Amino acid sequence: MTISKKDIEKIAHLARINISQAEAEQLEQKLIGIMSLIDKMQAVNTDNIEPMSHALDISQPLRDDVVTEFDLREKILPLAPEIEESLFIVPQVIE
Fold first, then answer.
1. Phi-psi region of 7 (alpha: psi -120 to 50; beta: other; left: phi over 0)
2. What is the pTM assigned to this prediction?
3. Cα 16 from Cα 21, distance rounded (Å)
4. Taking the alpha carbons of 28, 29, 34, 40 in that order, is the dihedral positive or negative?
5. Are 5 and 25 in contact, with CB atoms under 8 Å apart?
6. How far apart, in Å, are the Cα atoms of 32 and each of 8, 21, 42?
7. Nearest 5°: phi and psi at 68?
8. Fewest beta carbons less than 10 Å away: which of 18, 68, 82, 88?
9. For the chain, domain boundaries
């Protein structure tokens, strides 16, 4: 896939970004390099490669799932500006 200076100018216009001719030429060269690298990566045969979630074979140590804070409803509800049946009443934000 290739990208031209005309494509860059169109994208800049759509994004409402002012770029000079020199900047457009620099971006064109950088994007051509990026697209070339993507083409090379897509050409690599990955048929027998198993997908992996991380480059290193490590696992995240997990902590025990224990309750660290108990029900604080009785302490917090009196601080609310408005409550109804043990629920916080908030202003409507979606009509």
1. alpha
2. 0.49
3. 15
4. positive
5. yes
6. 11, 16, 15
7. -105, -25
8. 68
9. 5-43
The answer for residues whose C-beta is within 8 angstroms of residue 25's C-beta and 6 or more apart is 5
Taking 70 as the threshold, does the pLDDT of residue 1 lie above it? no
The amino acid that residue 37 corresponds to is: L
Q: Dig out the tokens for 74 from the structure.
A: 């009785």
Q: Which two tokens stand for residue 48?
A: 């027998």
Confidence label for 18 from pLDDT (cuts 50, 70 and 90) = very high
> Among all chains, which residue has been given the structure tokens 């660290």?
68
CATH class given for the domain over 5-43 = mainly alpha
| Residue whose pair of structure tokens reads 């629920």 in the numeric block | 87
- Output b/e per residue, 1-33; b: 16+ Cβ within 10 A: eeeeeeebeeeeeeeeeebeeeebeebbeebee
